[in-house]
Design brief:
mainly alpha
């Protein structure tokens, strides 16, 4: 195995794991990492690689919340577990349906420097607004447990997640901010975004791998394994850290980071330093 290529796979996995569940857009960071690591000319192969390592991040969430997931799977006769499972499914559907229908068109039109940068920047200001709203109205959060969600709440959160189909928006950012707008506490919004990530990432991974199946090769298995394992470990650490962080902090720091990153996208795209479009 090429040691340099293995190291690059390791770094890409770390980037995926550390950014997938933070409201900062893993896609934008993977594009940047891909460019800096010199993957030019390997775009098609990298599409498959990024799909595979995304599964590593998903497995980290499954492991972290394995007790609740097992309780749901073994207790579907319990109304409480039924309601939770149904809510996750309902929240998953809008992005799934719209993704299948419009994903290709969205990438063709919006996967360009200016739209990506604007998504970063606008998303940052949305986070600042949501956090200011929460600060000015301490009682705005009416849901303090994932078990208190209604079907209507789940549908609204699912619609919010669908905005993440826009490159640069961030799936976790859209889900968490949408949840807080609709009355979930910061902690519950974050937890539900983790649970919602499971069917969302499974669906996206299976669908994307099926579409790109012609690019799969057994020869790539060692590199895919390195990237997936590193994504799993980094995502697991990130999830643990984020759950502790939000207990005493807001998402404001991520908002300013998004705005700065958006400016970086514009500057590097304008100067030709990084080719952000497919």
């Amino acid at each position: 195995m090429d040691i340099v290529l293995a190291l690059k796979a390791l770094i890409m996995g770390l980037v995926e794991g550390f950014t997938e569940f933070l409201p900062i857009s893993s896609t934008g960071h993977l594009i940047l990492a891909e460019h800096l690591l010199g993957f030019q000319g390997m775009e098609e192969k990298m599409k498959v690689f990024e799909i595979v390592i995304q599964a590593g991040a998903m497995l980290a969430v499954i492991w972290e919340f394995r007790a609740r997931i097992l309780a749901v799977l073994t207790g579907l006769g319990d109304p409480k577990q039924q309601r939770f499972a149904i809510n996750v499914l309902i929240a998953f559907l809008p992005a799934a349906v719209l993704g299948v229908l419009f994903n290709k068109a969205i990438k063709q039109v919006l996967f360009a420097p200016v739209p990506v940068a604007l998504a970063f920047i606008i998303g940052g200001f949305v986070i600042l607004w949501v956090e200011k709203r929460a600060k000015d109205n301490p009682g705005v959060a009416r849901i303090n447990s994932v078990d208190d969600l209604t079907v209507v709440d789940a549908l609204k959160i699912g619609i919010a997640q669908a905005f993440a189909l826009i490159p640069g928006t961030s799936r976790s950012g859209a889900t968490i901010m949408g949840s807080m707008i609709f009355g979930l506490s910061r902690k519950v919004a974050t937890e539900f975004s983790f649970f919602l990530a499971i069917p969302t990432l499974i669906g996206a991974t299976v669908y994307s791998l099926y579409k790109e199946r012609a690019l799969l090769s057994a020869a790539d298995l060692p590199l895919f394994t390195i990237g997936t394992v590193s994504a799993f470990i980094s995502a697991f650490l990130c999830v643990r850290w984020l759950l502790r962080y939000i207990s005493s902090h807001t998402f404001t720091v991520f908002a300013w980071y998004r705005i700065a990153f958006g400016v970086l996208v514009l500057v590097t795209a304008y100067t030709g330093t990084i080719v952000w479009a497919d």
